[in-house]
């Protein structure tokens, strides 16, 4: 068994290719073997798919490398070839989470629902309201990992960085809306976002609407 922090030792031996005839007519009945890079991409995709599901639902500490390997259906050597440690996989998960959740699911959808920057800001909580009602609602992975690992841990610090990116999206909308002190606004707005997620996790299905009402007051405060 390989330790989680290390690459496994190399076990494959290179072989020289055998001589081939000058003309080869491939049989139409024999499928060509996939290119090595294609196989590697598929392996990474399987690992990332399983990691995304498990980490987003159960956090980091509760998910072990052996479970990740078993669920993804790859060899242990293949897993460690792509992810030399569990932490490296968590970092890849956080990056994917930022793209799929922050950018695609929240920010892009909020921009689609609102016609003006102010409407788009408020639409964040409409998107949250739909998300909170889903059976697969899994809360915020950045908050979860930060609380699990602590701010001093590299994974905790990475989570802090991704949370800052969320504030950056909010600040950009605030600037487009012409609000005063957009950075301060974004920090206050982010408190409403994080607080509503925690409240929804507690079971408050109206958390998004409550936060949206307070968000309207915050917008007016930064207009005066």
* Number of contiguous helices: 9
Structural class: mainly alpha
Query: What are the secondary-structure elements, in order, as H or E?
Result: HHHHHHHHH
CA gyration radius, whole angstroms: 23 Å
- State the share of residues found in helices, binned by percent: 55-70%
Could you explain how this protein is built, in words?
This protein has 224 residues and is mostly helical. The chain has a domain at 86-221: Tetracycline Repressor, domain 2. 67% of the residues lie in helices and 0% in strands. It is built from 9 helices and no strands. It has helices spanning 36-58, 65-72, 76-82, 86-113, 117-132, 141-149, 154-176, 182-202, 207-221. Helix 7 crosses helix 8.
Blueprint of the fold:
Blueprint (H helix, E strand, L loop, with lengths): L35 H23 L6 H8 L3 H7 L3 H28 L3 H16 L8 H9 L4 H23 L5 H21 L4 H15 L3
Feature tags:
mainly alpha; Tetracycline Repressor, domain 2; 224 residues; single chain; disordered N terminus
Please provide a brief summary of the model.
The chain has 224 residues and is mostly helical. The chain has helices spanning 36-58, 65-72, 76-82, 86-113, 117-132, 141-149, 154-176, 182-202, 207-221.
């Amino acid at each position: 068994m390989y330790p989680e922090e290390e690459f496994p030792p190399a076990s494959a031996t290179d072989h020289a290719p055998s001589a081939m005839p000058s003309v080869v007519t491939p049989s139409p009945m024999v499928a060509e073997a996939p290119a090595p890079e294609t196989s590697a991409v598929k392996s990474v995709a399987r690992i990332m798919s399983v990691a995304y599901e498990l980490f987003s639902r159960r956090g980091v500490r509760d998910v072990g490398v052996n479970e990740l390997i078993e669920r993804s259906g790859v060899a242990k050597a293949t897993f460690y070839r792509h992810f030399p440690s569990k932490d490296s996989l968590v970092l890849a998960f956080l990056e994917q989470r930022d793209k799929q959740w922050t950018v695609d699911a929240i920010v892009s959808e909020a921009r689609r629902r609102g016609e003006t920057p102010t409407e788009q800001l408020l639409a964040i909580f409409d998107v949250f309201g739909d998300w909170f009602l889903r059976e697969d609602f899994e809360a915020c992975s950045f908050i979860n990992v930060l609380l699990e690992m602590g701010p001093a841990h590299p994974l905790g610090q990475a989570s802090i960085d991704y949370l800052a990116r969320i504030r950056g999206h909010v600040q950009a909308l605030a600037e487009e809306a012409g609000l005063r002190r957009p950075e301060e606004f974004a920090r206050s707005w982010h408190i409403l976002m994080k607080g509503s997620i925690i409240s929804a996790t507690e079971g408050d299905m109206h958390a998004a609407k409550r936060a949206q009402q307070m968000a309207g007051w915050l917008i007016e405060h930064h207009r005066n």
